[in-house]
Amino acid sequence: MEQVVLQEIRRLTKFAGRYEDEFVEIVTGHSKEVSEIDRKLKKQELSKLTARDKELDKLFERTYEDNLSGKLSDERYAKMTRNYEIEQGELSVKIKALRTELEKSSDKTVTADTFINTVRKYTRAKKLSERMLNELIERIEVFHAEIIDGVKTQKLIIHFNCIGRIGIPDDIPLELPEITLILIPNKKH
């Protein structure tokens, strides 16, 4: 596995070095796409949470009025408002955390130049180091080995830091790794 990861890092660095414009286009596009999807989901969640928070305010008012008018006993009123307060407290924490994440995500969007500079540091890498893994790789998905047409095959998906999976276009002439890889193209979510 170590050799496969090293070979893919080498292919990525060669691609970035030889075809910088195409690499910048892929990284920038992918980074923006992932960032926009993440922000959109967080904004939707924030919208739901704030709507529920406002709804709880209205429920507080109604239960108070029902209690004053005698439609709701004092005991029931106390129990309901306690539950509403607990839920509203939890919502408040979640809303604050989501707002913080949204602020950080706008600052966190990595530029293509930053990733290219990181990749360039490893253009002549002969061995996979812990530092290289930490700077370049977010995670690696390893699947069960299968025998396909009599050949043992194992699928790996490498997710790079900040940009996720990146596919090097097939029409760009780069040396193939010594180890046969089956590359899975990027899927749009």
Note the beta-strand portion. 5-15%
Helical percentage: 55-70%
- How do the SSEs run, as a string of H and E? HHHHHEEEE
**Which of globular, elongated, flat, extended, rod-shaped describes the shape?**
elongated
Give the tally of β-strands: 4
Total separate domains: 1
Rounded to an integer in angstroms, the radius of gyration calculated over CA atoms is 26 Å
Mean pLDDT: 80
Question: Largest sheet, if any?
Answer: 2 strands, antiparallel
Low-pLDDT parts are none
How many helices does DSSP assign?
Answer: 5
The first-to-last residue Cα distance is 27 Å
Record the strand order, biggest sheet: 1-4
SSE inventory with pairings:
Blueprint: H1 2-18, H2 20-69, H3 74-108, H4 112-120, H5 130-136, E1 137-142, E2 146-148, E3 151-153, E4 156-160
Helix pairs in contact: 1-2, 2-3, 2-4
